[in-house]
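This week, think about what follows.
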Amino acid sequence: MGTHQWNIRIKDLQNNYQLFSIVNPLYNVSIAFVKCSILFQYISIFVPSRKSEYLYWAPRALIVVNILFYIICTFILIFLYRPVAEPSPELILQHYRLRFFAAYLSTAVINAFTDLVIFALPQRAVWKLQMPTRKKVAVSGAFLLGVL
């Protein structure tokens, strides 16, 4: 189990930031694989033949965008974790707050956008299915669970 941030002693901050420097790039790689697997599943479900140009090219383009984005984010996070020269507790806190706020904010915005696009991609195909509206809502709701 982890420790709450307010229970971490100041002298342990440097060690925690070193652990974050390992975990964050691994998180980026794992999320990239998850999003790509969802998009490959969309391709296999909705495009058995190349009938739908939209659902054939859009997931592939999103796969390329996600892979490039997460490669760039991984390298940015790796290079942001530079050790502080004179590690006083106040300097460590100020250093990491300033450097990571922009990186985390931009990553969060782009992640939210790509999640919404991944949710919206199959909606047109779902609503064109020949089934009752109630079932279409249920299928769309199943895709909505992935956004949460």
